[in-house]
Amino acid sequence: MKSNNGGSLEELFKDAVLEIYSGSQPADADSGETGTKLVRITLNSGAFTPGSPDNGLEFEAPINGVIGKKSGDVWSGVGLADGTAGWFRLYDNKYHTGDNKAAVRLDGACGVGSGQLKLSSLTIKEGVTITIDSFDIDIRGAS
């Protein structure tokens, strides 16, 4: 998949950050965040600073049209608030929030056994670490 910027999805989301929110997913990724931010997922729950590669999430090269979480990396975060996970947003390393048509990000639904982000439980607790064991983006047919 190529972006309007000419980079691959893997390149666009190099050193990314993923956040999980309560409530319903916005109509599109250009819309501002809704719900409560429950957890920020980084490499090894490390501090994330926009524009810095430290603790950013990495993806493997595509295999059969799917890019996935880099093998061996631990994607985790400590709960920021109690709540029920409803949706997630993956941000590029620039981390632009709010209404923004130029931001590089994607949204998806959270679920147990289903959804774009499969979790062992939708219950997020403040102060409790959660780990993302797998995360795949199917880029076949995307433009």
Order of helices and strands: HEEEEEEEEEE
End-to-end C-alpha gap: 6 Å
In the residues, how many domains can be counted?
Answer: 1
Give the strand tally.
Answer: 10
Indicate the percent of residues in helices. Answer: under 10%
Q: Would you tell me the overall average pLDDT? A: 90
Please indicate the percent range of residues in DSSP E strands (runs of 2 or more).
25-35%
Report the sheet with the most strands, covering strand number, pairing sense and barrel closure: 8 strands, mixed
Radius of gyration: 14 Å
Structural class: mainly beta
The shape is: globular
Unreliable parts: 1-6
Question: DSSP helix count?
Answer: 1
Give a written overview of the molecule.
The protein is an all-beta fold and 143 residues long. It has one domain. Helices cover 3% and strands 33% of the residues. The chain has one helix at residues 9-12, and strands at 17-22, 37-43, 66-68, 75-78, 83-91, 105-111, 117-118, 123-124, 129-132, 136-138. Strands 1, 2, 4, 5, 6, 7, 8 and 9 form an eight-stranded mixed β-sheet that branches. A two-stranded antiparallel sheet has the order 3-10. The longest helix is centred in the first third of the chain and has 4 residues, at 9-12. The protein is globular, with a radius of gyration of 14 Å. Residues 1-6 have low confidence and may be disordered.
